[in-house]
Design brief:
Elements (H helix, E strand, L loop, with lengths): L18 H4 L2 E5 L6 H14 L3 E4 L4 H7 L6 E6 L8 H14 L3 E5 L2 H5 L3 H17 L3 E5 L7 H13 L4 E4 L3 H11 L4 E4 L6 H10 L3 E4 L2 H21 L1
Parallel strand pairs: 1-2, 1-8, 2-3, 3-4, 4-5, 5-6, 6-7, 7-8
Helix pairs in contact: 4-6, 6-7, 7-8
C-alpha cells in the first residue's frame, strides 16, 4: 500500500483584535512642560482607547491615581528618571513613595555610571531592594536600562542582574543589535519593554512582533486610529471574498 502523503498543517495565525495592540501600549506623560490639563487629557485618552498603562511624572501620581480609580488602565511612574544617577537612598525613597501613592507599575532607572564603573554589586543590591518593595506592594517592577551608553558586555551583565533580582520587565531603547544580544538571555523570566516612544502603527506592530510585551508612545491616538482602520479594512475584505 502506498504511503499516504500528509501535508504538514501550519499553525493557525492568532486572530488580530483591537486589544491585541492597545493592551500593550503605554502612554507616556513625562514631558516637563505638560500642564495638569494636558495630563488630564492624556488620562482620558488612555481610558477611551483602553491602553495598558499611563506613565506619569512622580508629581502627578497622587492626582492621576484618583482620576484613574476603577479603570483597567494602570498608573505607572518612574524613579530615578531619566538617568538613574541619584544616590541609592534617594532613588529607593522615591520609588517607595510612588508605591505609597498608588502606582500599579513602577519603572526604576538602572545607574549606568555604576555599570560602566563595574560596580555590579552596588547595582544588584539597589535593584534587589526596590524589587522587594514593589513585589510586597503587588506592583510590577521594570528596570530601565540606558543601553545606548553601555558596552555590549555590560548589557549582558545588566540583564543577568535583572533576572537574579527577579525584576518583572527590562526596558531598553530599540537598537536591533541590542535586541539580538538581550532577547536570548530573557528565558521567559523577564519581559521586554520598548522605552523609546513609537510614533506610527507600523512601528508599533514591528516592535510587538520583535518581542516587546510593552510599547511606549507619547501619542497613542494616531497609532490606534490607524489600527482600527486596518482591522476594519481587513474585515471588509474578508466579507467580500
Amino acid at each position: 500500500m502506498d504511503e499516504i502523503r500528509q501535508t504538514p498543517i501550519e499553525p493557525a495565525q492568532p486572530v488580530e483584535t483591537y486589544e491585541s495592540l492597545a493592551s500593550i501600549i503605554e502612554l507616556t506623560l513625562l514631558a516637563p512642560g505638560l500642564s495638569t490639563d494636558d495630563v488630564d487629557r492624556g488620562c482620558q485618552l488612555a481610558r477611551e482607547y483602553g491602553l495598558a498603562a499611563v506613565v506619569v511624572r512622580p508629581c502627578d501620581v497622587e492626582m492621576v491615581s484618583r482620576w484613574m480609580s476603577g479603570s483597567s488602565v494602570k498608573v505607572s511612574s518612574v524613579a530615578g528618571y531619566p538617568y538613574g544617577t541619584s544616590t541609592t537612598g534617594a532613588k529607593l525613597y522615591e520609588g517607595r513613595d510612588l508605591l505609597r501613592l498608588g502606582v500599579r507599575e513602577l519603572d526604576f532607572v538602572l545607574n549606568p555610571a555604576a555599570m560602566i564603573s563595574r560596580q555590579f554589586q552596588h547595582v544588584e543590591t539597589e535593584l534587589m531592594q526596590i524589587v522587594q518593595s514593589a513585589h510586597e506592594s503587588d506592583v510590577n517592577l521594570t528596570v530601565v536600562c540606558n543601553n545606548r551608553i553601555l558596552a555590549d558586555d555590560l548589557k549582558i551583565i545588566a540583564t543577568r542582574i535583572c533576572k537574579r533580582v527577579e525584576a518583572d520587565t527590562l526596558a531598553i531603547q530599540h537598537i536591533e543589535s541590542d535586541l539580538q544580544i538581550i532577547k536570548p538571555l530573557l528565558k521567559d523570566l523577564l519581559r521586554l519593554k520598548r522605552a523609546d516612544g513609537v510614533l506610527t502603527m507600523e512601528e508599533a506592530l514591528v516592535s510587538r512582533d520583535a518581542g516587546y510585551s510593552r510599547i511606549t508612545t507619547p501619542n497613542a491616538a494616531p497609532i490606534l486610529d490607524a489600527w482600527k482602520q486596518k482591522l476594519a479594512a481587513e474585515a471588509q475584505t474578508k466579507q467580500l471574498t
